[in-house]
Description:
Layout: E1 2-6, H1 10-21, E2 25-29, E3 46-47, H2 56-66, H3 73-92, E4 107-108, E5 118-119, H4 126-140, E6 143-146, E7 150-157, E8 160-167, E9 170-175, E10 178-181, H5 202-210, E11 214-215, E12 220-227, H6 237-241, E13 245-247, H7 267-281, E14 285-288, H8 294-300, H9 302-310, E15 320-329, E16 332-334, E17 346-348, E18 353-354, H10 367-389, E19 405-408, H11 427-437, H12 444-460, H13 467-488, H14 501-504
Parallel strand pairs: 1-2, 1-10, 2-6, 10-17, 16-18
Antiparallel strand pairs: 3-5, 4-5, 7-8, 8-9, 9-19, 11-16, 12-15, 13-14, 14-15
Helix pairs in contact: 1-4, 1-10, 2-3, 3-10, 5-13, 8-9, 11-12, 12-13
Amino acid sequence: MNVIVAGSGIAGITAALHAADAGHRVTLVTDDALGGGCTPLAQGGVAGAYGPNDSPAVHAADTLTAGGGLADPAAVDVLVSEGSARIAELIARGVAFDRGTDGMLLLGREAAHAHARIVHAGGDATGAAISRALVAQVEAADIEVVEHALLVDLIVADGVARGIRILRTARIDMYADAVILATGGAGRLYAHTTNPRGATGGGIAAAIRAGAAVTDLEFMQFHPTVLDAGAPFLISEAVRGEGAVLIDERGRRFTFDSHPDGELAPRDVVARAVARQAAAQGSPVRLDATMIGAARLAERFPTIDRVTRERGLDWSREPLPVTPAAHYLMGGVVTDIDGRTSLPGLFAVGEVARTGVHGANRLASNSLLEGAVFAARAAAALGRHLSAASQTSRPTLSPPSFSSRIVPVPDAENGRNRDLNGGPFSRAALQQLMWDRVGLLRTHEGLAEALETIRSWRVAAATPVSRSEHEDADLLLVAEATASAALARTESVGAHHVDHEPALIGA
């Protein structure tokens, strides 16, 4: 069976390795270098039920609570019950999670977790450690890798996904028996984000154009503590798990005004509290980690320690200025617990997928776990997909090929601006609009205005040619879907918060 995997984070590589181990012919396509994307940036770790008083049931309860009642219990049960096996697999593949002198895994705690259950590597470099180990596994496996290839569209024939169209120096059609999307999220919709440049929602946009079901795009998680000094840099939630506190300009721990758990409340609660306090005082709030001590900060969070000091900040002596930023998308392409989408032949795993485990708000450190668990399940389901497909008439498909060149295209860093009655489109204008109107704090009127503007930009947009223009088109499509979903959900839940809600219902 010929399989194309689009994406090379933890979900994409895990799916590719499992598919190759099952004897499938696998081509791994990535829009960056192998191992790029969000995975190597992940600081926190991987959640698992390891502690003496912990269990998969307790982990599931925490996940369901954080999800605001909208997480799928069946998907959550899969996540927590198979999590230990996937963490063990990562260890077997060469991920060196941190251990104590007794050889036992060191466990951290993050917000909304009842216990310390987060395994981490290199202190705060878990994603980088995972990415290095998995990339080495791919390089040693019989997997063809195509780098720097932007997903342009899915190829669909007779209602079945038959392959993908990519853009390198030209558009190229690739065919396969099944496609696994692992392209990540859409953090670049927003002016302030922790996401890398490639997080432009390409997989979600391609799925929408192909007719696959997509849902819950209104649930974008905003991380509450991103360094507000220089380029956005995440300050892991694990820092608060170690005892750091959020303070206002007077040194008061203001988050208890919003939730009895204070800094360890669910992310959506903390992020809104940070945003409101910063607006009220007209300056960033501060994350105070001075009580942890210089030695412990350097040992437990070496990456954060290095970056903050490079920016002239000594967080062992002074609190850090922090601000929220778009971080993780809970919605995406709808899948079942085996990664199957509503479009036959198409699977989705990782952040591009809406498995149902996160509901309205992701529990910290469940994302890497989700990628590993459901990628393995999707790869296992490939054989069942092929068996089911063989029951119906379908043409013989060629293996992935790069010989079908359609038309050479130029590349450009910036898309064309398009003049509109409401102002010119630019990526920066879209990102600011999304931040202001479809961000942390939303109103019915603001969402309606955003949707109208986005739709006018889409109508006026030229046919994309260059890479950046394709990315702009993807962002606009996902922005329209996101604003539409947010406008349709009138009640506040999890990461979707509508201000002055009673006055807006029925407006």
